[in-house]
Amino acid sequence: PDEELHYLNTKGRPEVLATPRSSAFRIAFEKRDCACILTGSNNHPPHVDKRKEMLCGLAIEAAHIVPLSRPDLWKLQFVAAIRKSRRLLRIGYAAINQNALENGIMLRADLHIMFDRFLWSVNPKTWRVVVFIPVAELVSFHGRTISRGDLNQFPPEPIWRWHWEQCVLRCLRAEGEL
């Protein structure tokens, strides 16, 4: 656990690998969520026709829950959870990797950055938003229950639990340094 914590929280900040988002990745998430799961906003200008390559408007991004910088964890922990989820939903076996629909959500750009830095998460038992660091833009979302839609390839509980645990560890580590 200490090595994991150090890896994710070097100098109090997690290392997140920034990569360009492919349009196929974004489109897949837009078809499922079509709006920020936290705000409900899709930021699409009402007078502009929705094209297949842009179902959500500007500043709504596809966000990985388990970051691309952690392929080691992905293979060990989450493939089985996704297979189980797909069996229960009777969904076909598309590729299961870090870009699977079950590892992503749509978020407003600023909330995406704060999610990647483990400032907030979703409690995997209650589906309520918990803000760990009181940032003005986040506080109003604390306690809000997120909608899981029709649950079609929505991220399963073990993936959310991983993100939740990283937030808790980061928060505890920060408290210990005071």
From TrEMBL:
Domain HNH nuclease: 36-123
Name under which the protein is recorded: HNH nuclease domain-containing protein
